[in-house]
């Protein structure tokens, strides 16, 4: 179900803007944060995993990222799609894409 990529690297015509909708800590792995970004309609998502190696390892998390269309997964659960859509809309209203969250 999950698409994982450490570098979204979008810049071409297939780039899709997705908004941060969820930040969770992995139960399976120590020191791992899972960032989930979704399209405004909540139908597609991008998942990014980050290891927290130290407090000096600074990597900003932005309100939105542009990712290649091929790196997006599909949200099958209607309730999750609705939740992602609501949160993506809220983030887009409150933040600029480059805002550090």
Automatic annotation (TrEMBL):
Top-rank taxon: Archaea
InterPro entries hit by this protein: DUF7967 (IPR058273)
Domain named DUF7967: residues: 13-101
Name used for this protein in its record: DUF7967 domain-containing protein
Source species: Haloterrigena turkmenica (strain ATCC 51198 / DSM 5511 / JCM 9101 / NCIMB 13204 / VKM B-1734 / 4k) (Halococcus turkmenicus)
Lineage of origin: Archaea, Methanobacteriati, Methanobacteriota, Stenosarchaea group, Halobacteria
